[in-house]
Design goal:
By secondary structure, this protein is of the alpha+beta class. The chain is built from three helices and five strands. The N and C termini lie far apart (73 Å).
Length: 141
């Protein structure tokens, strides 16, 4: 069997393993195996084939994989809807405690509770929105 076929089969197996694991590790090795297959096609020596595999695999792991992982695990740039309100400042309109209260948040009146369930926050104070649960802002002052 020709060396390029062996390298192509190794690349295929690595692609299948990557599909099963989704680690972006085996795909980088598969590209290295494909480079070794190309080297074998042009009648490079076995040492050059292995060197091509190692060099391309290491380059892919060092350069491409981190960039690909960063793009795959990147948080959305823009928060929408109530997600925008988390971290915002609000003004307490009615006393806020673990049972309820009212705040002015983003120009609207919202029901609110203290985040820890124990704090009492008096009207007129500014608070930070920690979380939104339904139509209630959980705040900390």
């Amino acid at each position: 069997m020709d060396a390029w076929i062996v390298w192509a089969l190794i690349a295929l197996v690595l692609v299948i393993v990557e599909i099963l694991t989704l680690t972006l590790f085996f795909a980088m090795l598969a590209v290295g195996a494909a480079a070794a297959a190309v080297a074998a096609m042009v009648d490079a020596s076995r040492g050059l084939q292995i060197l091509a595999f190692a060099a391309v695999s290491l380059a892919m792991l060092a350069v491409v994989r981190p960039v690909a992982r960063r793009h795959l695990h990147q948080a959305p740039e823009h928060r929408t809807n109530v997600d925008q309100l988390v971290g915002a400042r609000a003004l307490v309109l009615e006393k806020v405690d673990g049972n309820g209260g009212r705040v002015r948040l983003a120009g609207e009146v919202w029901s609110a509770r203290s985040y820890d369930g124990e704090s009492v926050i008096e009207p007129g104070r500014s608070v930070d929105v920690i979380k939104i649960e339904g139509a209630t802002a959980l705040v900390i002052g």
